[in-house]
Design brief:
The chain is mostly helical. The protein has helices at residues 10-49, 65-68, 72-96, 103-113, 119-127, 132-142. The chain has one domain. It is elongated, with a radius of gyration of 22 Å.
Length: 152
């Protein structure tokens, strides 16, 4: 019986093997998904971090690319794509907090891509967490770029 499973109980071993067999396909797909998330984050996070200007976290006024374009349909399409990718990265980053991968950095990049009220304050708060700014600057140094300026 499952209630009386001891370390040397043969019935308990059979129960565990049966449970493992039932969950094997799900565990396999979860492992493959986790590996894909790891590879995706290792490729996308450095790409995004190296394209931000060094003063991104200390600017008092944000420059919006959508204000400079004269094509409203293009601006709307790009905004939808950018926000969709941001939401996807936030979801993947949350998953990577409990699976292998760069969870915090992927969350940060996803938040950087999205548009929502209070985004700037949240970005600065996240960057000031121990280790986050150092890791972002490490990625920038590897590409020969100047480090991010530190927010006050």
């Amino acid at each position: 019986m499952a209630d009386n499973c001891g370390p040397f109980d043969g019935g308990c071993r059979e129960l565990l093997l049966e449970l493992a067999a039932q969950w094997q396909p799900l565990l396999l797909w979860a492992s493959i998904g986790s590996l894909l998330l790891l590879v995706t984050s290792l490729l996308t996070v450095p790409w995004v971090v190296t394209r931000l200007p060094a003063d991104y976290f200390v600017r008092t006024r944000r420059r919006h690319w959508r204000d400079e374009s004269g094509h409203p349909l293009l601006v709307l399409t790009l905004a939808l794509v950018k926000n969709s990718v941001g939401v996807l990265l936030v979801v993947l980053g949350a998953i990577m907090l409990v699976t292998p991968g760069q969870g915090v950095l992927t969350l940060l990049v996803g938040l950087l891509l999205m548009n929502f009220p209070g985004k700037y304050r949240l970005e600065r708060w996240l960057v000031l967490r121990p280790g986050v700014l150092g890791t972002l600057n490490w990625l920038r140094r590897r590409k020969g770029l100047p480090e991010f300026e530190t927010p006050n």
